[in-house]
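User: Teach me something about this protein's shape.
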Amino acid sequence: MSSNQTANDDEQVTMNDDYSDNDETPDNSSPSSLPAGSLNAHDYTLRSALPTLITSILLGLVSGTAYGFGRYARTLKEVLGLSQSEVQALGVFMDCGNYVGHPLVGIIYDRKGPEVSCLLGALLAFVSYWKIRWTLLNNNEDDDLSDVGILWLELAFFGVGFSSGLGYISGLGEATKALLRLTGSSSRYFGTGIGLVAAGCGLSSTLVGLSYQHSPNLPSFFLFWALIVPVVSIGAAIMFQIQSNSASVERLAEANGPRMEQAEPLLCSPTLESAEAQSYQQTAMEEEVVDEESVALMETWDAWKKLEFWLLFASFSCASGCGLFVINNVSTMVQSMGGSDSLAGTLVIVLSISNVCGRILMGILGDAAATSDSTALPRIRLLQGVNLTMALAMLLAFLGGQQQVCVILFVVVVAVAYGSTWVLIVALTPKLFAKEHFGKSYGLLALGPAMAGLVFNQTSAKWYEQHASNNTCIG
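Assistant: First, the predicted structure itself:
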C-alpha cells in the first residue's frame, strides 16, 4: 500500500461532519471507491440521487395543499353557512396539523423511515379528504352545521395538514440525505437542491387553484385530492424503498471492494512492510471511532436546550406566521376590497409562483454565500434580511390601502419572503444542530408557524367580525 493511499483514507475518515453522512462511505469522489471502467464519481452519485430528488419534488407538490386554502375558503364558508371565525378555524386546524404535528412526524420519520411515513400519510389523507367531501354532500343548505359536525370537520382538516407534514418531511429528509451524500463536505449545490424540493411544496397551491377552477363543485374538488395524494405517497414509499436497497448495495460494494484489494497483499505478499500494515489497522480503528460517535449522536438530542435554537424558532415563527396569515386570507381580502372571485384565483397563482421563486432564489443565494464562508453565519444574515422584507411588506399593505396594484405587490413580496424562510431553515437545521436528529429538530422548529398563524388568524377573524355586516366585511 502506498503512503498516498493511506493519506487519502485518513482524509476520508476525518471529513467535516457538518456535511457528511455517517451512514455512508464519507467520500465517493475517490477513484478507488469505484470499480474499474465505471463512470466518474460525480456522475455515479448524481445518477443515484436523481430519483430521490424527483420523488421528493412530487411529494412536495401534493404536500402543500394548505397553501391553497384561501382559494376555496370563501366558497366553503358560503356552502356550509360558516362564520368567519369558523372558517378561519378550519385553516388554523389545517396549519396545526401540518406544523404542530411536525415533532411527531419527525419522530416517525427518524425511527420508522420514509416508507412508513408516506404510507401513513396516504391513509390519513384519503380518510380526511373523504370526510370533508362527505360533509359537503350530506349538508342541508337550510340548516347550519352542529357543533359536533364542525368539530369533525376541524379534525378532518387537521388530518389533511398532518398527512401533508408526513409527506413533506419524508421528501425533504430523503432529499437532504441524498444531497449531503452527493455534495460531501461541499455545500456548493446543497441549498439549490433543497430550494428545488421546497419549491415543489410552494407550487402546490397552484395545483389547488387549477383543480378548484376546473372542478364542477366542491365535493368533486375534494375527491380529486382524496385520490391524488395517496397515489403519489404510495408511489414515493415504493421509490424510497428501491433507492434504499440500491444505496445499501452500493455502500457494501464501495466498502468491501477497496478493502479486499488492500487486504489481499496482507495475506499473500511476504514483502509487505509492517509500517503499512499498522497504517491500515489505524485507519480501520478510526472508522470504528466515527461509527461509535454516530451511534452516540443518534441517542442524544439536545438541540432544544440551546438558546440559539429558540432564537431561530422565534425568528422563523414571526416571518412564517405573517406568510400563513396572508395565504389563508387571500380570498377574504379580495372580497373585502369588492374584488371578483377570478381576482382571488389570480392572486393564489401569483402567490404560488412567488413562493416557488423565493425558495429557488434563496437556495442559490445561500449556496453563493456559503461558498466564501462555510459557517452558518451567511444564511443567518439572509434570514435576518428576509424577516425585514416581511415587515416592510406588512407596512406596505397598511399604507397602500385597497389599491389593487399595492395588494398584488404585497402578495408577491410576502410569498417570496415566506418561501425563502423555509429553505433557510432546512439548510440551517443540519448545520447548527446534529443532522442525525434532523426530523425532530426541524419538526420542533415547525411549531413556530402554527403558533404564530393561530394568533394572527384568530385575531384577524375577531376584528373582521366586529366590522362585518351580514357576515361579510367590505372596506
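Now, about its shape. The longest helix spans residues 218-268. The chain is about 80% helix and 0% strand. If you'd like, I can walk through any region in more detail.
User: That's plenty for now, thanks!
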